[in-house]
Amino acid sequence: MLSLAIVYRPAGGRPLSLATIEDRDFLAAAAAAAIRESLAKAEELEASDPVLGRVQREDAEKLRRVLSALLPNPGVPEARVM
């Protein structure tokens, strides 16, 4: 089973889990957002360091594959590795 946790992290304190979400549509949207953010980070890194940008892009692709295995059709196409 796949779920998403909402966690409060106070400064200097231990994280506190507030809620768990198991709605598949919401999980698909969250997976798509995580992949998009990872790809955006790769593009940002590529501007200053092409090697780190490629590593991040490959991490984004790995994230996409893992989330697709756990949650079919997360709504984001494969990352293009340059």
Q: How are the SSEs placed, and which strands pair?
A:
Blueprint: E1 4-8, E2 16-21, H1 24-48, H2 50-70
Antiparallel strand pairs: 1-2
Helix pairs in contact: 1-2
Short descriptors:
82 residues; alpha+beta; two-stranded antiparallel sheet; 56% helix
Task: Explain this structure.
- This protein is an alpha+beta fold and 82 residues long.
- It has one domain.
- The chain is 56% helix and 13% strand.
- It contains two helices and two strands; from the N terminus they run E-E-H-H.
- The protein has helices spanning 24-48, 50-70, and strands at residues 4-8, 16-21.
- It has a two-stranded antiparallel ribbon.
- Strand 1 and strand 2 (16-21) form a beta hairpin.
- Helix 1 (24-48) runs antiparallel to helix 2 (50-70).
Spatially, the strands of the biggest sheet line up as: 1-2
* Helicity, as a percent range: 55-70%
Please give the radius of gyration in angstroms: 15 Å
How many domain modules?
A: 1
Low-confidence runs of at least 5 consecutive residues? none
Structural class designation: alpha+beta
Into which percentage range does the β-strand content fall? 5-15%
Distance between the termini: 34 Å
Tell me the major beta sheet: 2 strands, antiparallel
Q: What are the secondary-structure elements, in order, as H or E?
A: EEHH
* Rounded average pLDDT: 88
